[in-house]
Q: What sequence folds into this?
């Protein structure tokens, strides 16, 4: 399956299926057997690498605005508290 950044996928989890959004760039998705995905479960953000064999199906694609918001929020979450203060 040819996947692209922003694709919304259903993947096979350990105990159930889950919905994720692909955040890895398209070049990486083209050449790698894995991809990096973003998901929110019970209010917690998860970013992880999954094997593409776990993909069940593509169910949509995030808008450009949604992709940018996700990537922006991920960057903010990676900042230390002092770095966040510098942004205000």
A:
């Amino acid at each position: 399956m040819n996947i692209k950044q922003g694709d919304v996928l259903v993947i096979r989890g350990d105990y159930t299926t889950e919905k994720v959004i692909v955040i890895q760039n398209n070049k990486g998705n083209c050449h790698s057997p894995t991809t990096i995905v973003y998901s929110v479960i019970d209010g917690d953000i998860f970013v992880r690498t999954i094997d593409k064999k776990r993909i069940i199906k593509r169910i949509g694609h995030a808008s450009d605005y949604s992709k940018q918001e996700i990537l922006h929020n991920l960057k903010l979450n990676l900042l230390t508290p002092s770095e966040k203060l510098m942004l205000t």
